[in-house]
Amino acid sequence: MQRSRIKVLLVSSEEVSMLKNIATAFGVIQPDSDALVITGEKFQSSSVDKKMDMATRFSVMGNSLPKDRLLVLGCLKIQGHKVAVVGNRTNDIPMLKAADVGLTFATRSTDIARRSTNIVITEGNFTSI
């Protein structure tokens, strides 16, 4: 994905340590890398300038609230980045709508989340894209 200049961010309400393991397993970050891993609380409590900087530098954000995730999306879009969001729950709807492209899975999402996206993935995984 780095050759295509796509940066994957893993942002979730889950624990940071679990997300870091997932990110490593899927190649989002390399083992023992110095990739920036933060919490939603750290992001939320930062200054506006720091948030703008962190939004482009972190790879994993855990323990985040929906408002933290929406704020990251806003920071990235203000800086001119195109943003795609994968969501499956009702609390993901604001991000799905604010993203340039919202994606959800047909089998693992709420009906209202599916209706709020641009793309519904029917195969149950990203390889179908």
UniProtKB/TrEMBL annotation:
Classification via SUPFAM superfamilies: HAD-like
KW Magnesium (keyword) present: yes
This protein's UniProt keywords: Magnesium
Keyword Magnesium: yes
PANTHER family found in the cross-reference section: CALCIUM-TRANSPORTING ATPASE 12, PLASMA MEMBRANE-TYPE-LIKE, CATION TRANSPORTING ATPASE
Protein name as catalogued: Uncharacterized protein
Organism expressing this protein natively: Eucalyptus globulus (Tasmanian blue gum)
